[in-house]
Specification:
By secondary structure, the protein is mostly helical. 46% of the residues lie in helices and 10% in strands. It is built from 16 helices and eight strands.
Length: 404
């Protein structure tokens, strides 16, 4: 007699499960949850009563329907971010890792650190973004004021990345930062803040800064487009004064007042450039400085020396914090606006663009991963470039009329 075909068990929906009594008298609940990857995650728990088991199963169903299910139900956002950042830190540039840690500790943890990872919603994030304020006790003029749009964007990007990895690993069903967005001011959204000096301002700054010890470092950056950390991280073993070849292999950063020598942040940042003209002359002058510094050194502190290209009077590497402090004074003396630490880099890129240099060549020179990034974030179009930028159709019409 042929066997009767078995009816397949109905496929359980997302979050569906069962409740059963164990021989011990306790109650066990089980559920299956489908993750975004398609993987089915089976979860279970044991409680004292049938009611507790049904309640637990109901919560799993509700969380799965809302996209808030987590295999880490008790883990707080603070605990998750601590483990997530520690895992990523070895592969990050030292300064970037330090800035991410600062964002987490100074801004995210005070607002959301104790919230359970699985319970954070897009509305929670939007309320958090709206309430962000400066917390730096050392700056009384900004403490308690709304956080700037750039910082809000950095915090959002960090959270989005962390939540994305939680989803990818199956710890969350949905990323709440996919929906939530910080509210930016109209001015910030337009990104109209001036970031580069005009050609006239750059010339005025160069004239004032060139004779100054620290100023000549800025002049070198203005001539080459190097980042501050890249310039201060240069070592003589990577410089060939005969050919002008300079290898960018090290970056010097200052983290909490302590110098760290690390590698450039991306593979494209590790590059070789060729310098000439005044930039090469600046390097030759700095090659002679240790001799002058030793002769002028007082008996107080011993001359230590180093293989750094740009050094302090004791021969040690110049800290970024030190050179930043000198920039404001140089800008004031040159009567040009202070535009921040990256003014030289922005100005180099913008002046190269104004001279018609190909953007892909400029992008490679400054170590950007994509020419589009160079254009979008660093290129300033000067007023003179926009002057008389109209098509002369009268000339085009005359040309067409001449044709038989």
């Amino acid at each position: 007699m042929p066997r009767k075909a078995e009816t397949p068990a109905p496929k359980r929906g997302n979050g569906r499960g069962s409740v059963r009594r164990l021989p011990s008298g306790r109650w066990q609940w089980r559920a299956s949850v489908e993750l975004p990857s398609g993987e089915v995650k089976r979860v279970s728990g044991t409680v004292a009563t049938k009611t507790e088991a049904e309640d637990a199963l109901s919560r799993v169903r509700t969380d799965a329907a809302r996209g808030q299910f987590s295999v880490l139900p008790q883990t707080t956002l603070g605990e998750y971010l601590a483990a997530w950042h520690e895992q990523r830190r070895p592969g990050l540039a030292a300064k970037y890792a330090h800035s991410q840690k600062s964002l987490i500790e100074n801004h995210i943890l005070p607002g959301l650190g104790k919230r359970r990872l699985a319970t954070i919603t897009p509305r929670d994030l939007e309320a958090f973004y709206a309430g962000l304020t400066y917390r730096d006790k050392r700056r009384e003029e900004t403490k308690g004021k709304p956080l700037g749009d750039s910082m809000r964007r950095q915090i959002h990007n960090l959270l989005h990345l962390a939540f994305s990895e939680a989803v990818r690993h199956g710890d969350l069903l949905r990323n709440p930062a996919d929906v939530a967005r910080p509210r930016y001011t109209r001015e910030a959204a337009k990104e109209e803040r001036v970031k580069a000096w005009t050609p006239e301002q750059a010339g005025a700054f160069y004239a004032v800064a060139r004779p100054d010890r620290l100023g000549s470092v800025f002049c070198f950056m203005l001539s080459t487009g190097l980042r501050v950390g890249e310039a201060l991280g240069l070592r003589w073993e990577h410089v060939d004064l005969h050919t002008g070849r300079v290898e960018v292999k090290d970056v010097l950063v200052s983290l909490s007042g302590v110098k760290h020598r690390t590698t450039p942040k991306t593979p494209r940042s590790r590059r070789t450039i060729t310098v000439s003209g005044d930039a090469l002359e600046i390097l030759r002058e700095w090659q002679e400085r240790p001799i002058l510094d030793r002769e002028a050194q007082s008996k107080g502190k011993p001359y230590v020396g180093s293989d750094a290209v740009f050094t302090n009077t004791l021969g040690g590497p110049i800290l970024p914090d030190t050179i930043y402090r000198g920039l404001r004074a140089l800008c004031a003396a040159a009567k040009v606006p202070y535009l921040g630490a990256h003014a030289c880099r922005h100005t180099f890129i913008s002046l190269m663009g104004a001279q018609g240099r190909p953007v892909e060549v400029v992008s490679a020179q400054v170590g950007h991963a994509r020419p589009s990034f160079t254009l979008d974030r660093y290129r300033t179009v000067f007023a003179k470039e926009r002057e008389a930028l109209t098509l002369d159709f009268s000339a085009l019409t005359k040309d067409s009329e001449r044709k038989p």
